[in-house]
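$ ./design --mode recover --in tokens.txt
reading tokens...
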């Protein structure tokens, strides 16, 4: 359960333009992801990522047997082929959002640690669920498709510093998928 009194929200913008770079799969500017969702009438649509952002906040995993709740940073990563305004893509553009739970004790003012984040259904309900990928959301054409109960997948962060985040994403639930 999210402890609202301890929520710290930090927004860091990472632009995929002449300055900073978010890379996926080792790519630099011009990184590309592939998205699929029948709800959004998208089938293996290639999205040339132009804008990347991430936000973070503190979340509490479900209490353990002793009733203690452990905390971690939850990182939401936003990727789009156009500008992002109030967590919405520009008209005619696609926005992909996925979340990863950091290591136990991680703070919201940190960047996600490098490493592998295996897909797991709703970490808020799990005891000690850390270093997990937990949500996927795709927005396109005024509609949203989302999943928190993954069939398979993981997020691999290979670089995370002041210049950006690099890695790969491969998350799937039914016909909702993002890969790149």
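writing sequence...
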């Amino acid at each position: 359960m999210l402890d609202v009194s301890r929520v710290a929200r930090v927004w860091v913008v990472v632009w995929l333009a002449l300055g900073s770079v978010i890379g996926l799969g080792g790519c630099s500017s011009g990184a590309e992801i592939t998205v699929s969702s029948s709800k959004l009438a998208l089938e293996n649509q290639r999205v040339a990522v132009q804008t990347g952002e991430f936000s973070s906040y503190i979340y509490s995993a479900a209490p353990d047997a002793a009733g203690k709740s452990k905390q971690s940073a939850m990182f939401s990563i936003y990727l789009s082929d156009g500008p992002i305004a109030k967590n919405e893509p520009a008209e005619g553009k696609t926005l992909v959002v996925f979340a990863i739970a950091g290591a136990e004790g991680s703070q919201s003012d940190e960047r996600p640690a490098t490493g592998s984040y295996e897909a797991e259904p709703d970490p808020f309900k799990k005891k000690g669920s850390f270093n997990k990928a937990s949500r996927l959301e795709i927005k396109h054409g005024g509609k949203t498709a989302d999943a928190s109960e993954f069939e398979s997948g993981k997020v691999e962060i290979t670089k995370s510093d002041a210049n950006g985040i690099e890695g790969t994403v491969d998350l799937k639930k039914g016909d909702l998928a993002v890969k790149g």
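exit 0
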